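Q: For a teaching handout, I want to show students what a protein-ligand complex looks like in token form. Below are the inputs, and the small molecule is serine. Please produce the holo structure.
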Amino acid sequence: MNTDLVVRTFIEYFEERGHRRITGSSLLPPTGDPVLYTTSGMHPLTPYLEGRPHPLGSRLVNVQRCLRTTDLDEVGDDTHLTVFEMLGTWSLGDYEGSLSLEWGHDLLVNGFGIDPGRLHATVFGGDDQVGPDTESLRIWQERGVPVELTRDENWWSNGPTGPCGPDSEIFLWTGDTPPHSTPTQDDRWVEVWNHVMMRHRRHEDGSLHPLPRANVDTGLGLERLTTLLQGKKSVYDCDLFEPWMRLVPPLWHLDELSLRIVCDHLRSSVVVIGDGVLPSNTGRGYVLRRLVRRVLTTLWREDPSRSLQDVPLELLEHTLDHFQQVTDVRTVHEVLLDEERRFTGLLERGRRVLSKPRFTSTLTDTDYSYLHDTHGLPRDLVVLLRTDL
Ligand code: SER
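A: Here is the structure, written as tokens, with serine included.
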């Protein structure tokens, strides 16, 4: 089952159950949103989860691209990507979380053909503010799915304030042995689908208040599910990365981790640029700058003559097409090359300055401030120049 078929199967399943498909938004949240990038499918829907009627009704489904800077350090493992896609469903004050879990189980087992014996669920066990989620527990027990109760791991929020609630997560066993242990004890249990009973709003003072209506918000990681359905070990082996894994290794000889980081960060940079962001020293642009520069430092560690000039446009095109972005592929490539030129210039200047006797021993905070204020060399770059390059 390729990615497109996974998306179609998911969307049709929920359309048959009265959900209307909404168009996924870009990675840029609406003006006024303090978060730099859209981090989940629910993110653009926050006003509707807080009570505003949605023009398409109370049952929604979509596929939304997301970027989580909090996951950046985990990129390179088998399951995390910087830009990823989330299949989502919402009940805006319509059906209950228990029905959402029943459908979730049915779709995974009967729609996607997953062996029910490879599933595990987690459920909110209660804390001093909110009681245990007995409804979700009942659903899983009725279906014979093992359940682990937790507190913090099963509470979902999109930030310190705003809509939130207990969640129930569905995990799939990826080990070579028969399933055993539990999701918090063994990371061969991979989370694929989160169902949030979004009934509360957290206020500035930390207090919880009921939302005007009880919602359900679910998110299923597209690349993770596709990878598991295709019987692959890592997201880089699923069809979405096929052209990357075919074209990048002959271009640059890289160890496995570096290859994954280069492919993930380049692909994510293309999507970010496709959504209208340019590299800069602040905010969104800074996230993009760091992605491109990490690609460059990874490439140059072994061979400083490598250049993004050599990236096949086919890869950029494949990504823009997949995300249905209309930005011209040459424009995207030019943005990447501009950033490469800028970074090269900065490194040359940095090397010259850092070779002065004053900077050859341990640097003090005053040195770092001077290098930043006088020579435009940020601390992380100085550290990098003194270690990696
Ligand atoms: N908001 C939840 C998540 O991001 C479910 O969509 O996991």
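A: Two things your students might notice: Strands lie at 20-21, 59-67, 83-91, 119-124, 147-150, 155-157, 162-173, 189-202, 208-221. The two ends are 43 Å apart (CA to CA).
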